[in-house]
Amino acid sequence: LLRILFQIGNSFTKLKFYNLMQTQRAAPRLWVTPAQQRWASSLPMNTVVLFVPQQEAWVVERMGRFHRILEPGLNFLIPILDRVRYVQSLKEIVIDVPEQSAVSLDNVTLQIDGVLYLRILDPFKASYGVEEPEYAVTQLAQTTMRSELGKLTLDKVFRERESLNSNIVHSINQASDEWGIRCLRYEIKDIHVPPRVKESMQMQVEAERKKRATVLDSEGMREAAINVAEGQKRAQILASEGEKAEQINKAAGEAQAVLARAEAKAKAICMLSDALTQQNGDAAASLSVAEQYVSAFSKLAKESNTILLPSNTGDISGMITQAMTIYSTMAKKGPKVPEAAQLKSEDHANQSSQ
Predict the structure, then answer these.
(1) What tens digit of pLDDT does each residue of 315-354 get?
(2) DSSP 3-state assignment of 313?
(3) Which residues pair with 328 in a beta bridge?
(4) Which GO terms describe its biological process (predicted)?
């Protein structure tokens, strides 16, 4: 009995050593930093009763051949025949893609890095489809990023980062379907350009800003000139309309004044004609002519140095007689007064005599 127990213990010790060697052989290399390392349970020993953690898939082999995948919770295995070969994490995995150099379409060398987010969808394909699937996906992301950057110029690399990320994700998913891995998204972290290119880009930005400032200044000057021209145009229109209204009002006033003077003169002539038809009208006319003669002589040599005088300037009675003769002659040659006018003049004479 003691010999049997000793043999069983020796066999278990050999089995434990064998499992330890297999664990070290199957454990993946740590090719990422500890902060981004995907932590999963180490390969467990077959203790018949196993408890699988949530969001993990344990790949079990029976006599070296794939048997089944253990689900989270309680599971039972056959000792010696069954062993856990791979442990896959079903959580979303974050991988830091190392910085690498790439050449754009316009021959500018860029230093670019990124972050890759992926998840294992099929533990069987991830275990048997590729060796170290995360490392393979990272290498694929780097090569795809270099090829996509080679299709774009430097300006488009900065403007089309979203389309670049989506193209990289699409290319990775096409190749990783056979590995049971799904790339969720890819984000570019930093893009570093050479110092000279950076200086030229800064100069280009400054030139663009100066150009925009110059264009804005010219547009402002143009708007100001247009506003001034429109203001002058409206001022001239208003001034011309004001002058037009002033001239119209002035002409209307002059016309009214002419009419008023004509009416006053007509009334004066009518009154004069009525007065001449009355008694002693000739004497009144002679008196008026004498007054105008004296007034004319009083204004001599006031407006001009040239004076034209009649030969008999001292004979006032002769001048009056001559003026009355001219008036009588003009009265005789004038048209005859209608009967209505004569009746009207007689009525005025009667009224004045009364």
Answers:
(1) 666 666 666 666 566 555 544 444 444 444 445 444 444 4
(2) coil
(3) none
(4) mitochondrion organization
d(CA 222, CA 226): 6
CA 13 from chain center: how many Å? 80
d(C-alpha 68, C-alpha 62), whole Å: 9
Listed residue (23, 143, 29) closest to 85, CA to CA = 23
Both structure tokens of 111: 């230093």
Distance CA 354, CA 351 (A): 5
For the whole model, what pTM was predicted?
Answer: 0.47
274 CB contacts (<8 Å, ≥6 apart)?
Answer: 345, 348, 349, 352
Count CA atoms within 13 Å of residue 242 on its CB side. 6
Give the Cβ contact number of residue 272 at 10 Å. Answer: 14
CB 68 within 8 Å of CB 113: no
Q: To which residue do tokens 């699988």 refer?
A: 52
* DSSP structure string for 147-190: HHHTTS-HHHHHH-HHHHHHHHHHHHHHHHGGGTEEEEEEEEEE
124 within 8 A of 70, measured Cβ to Cβ? no
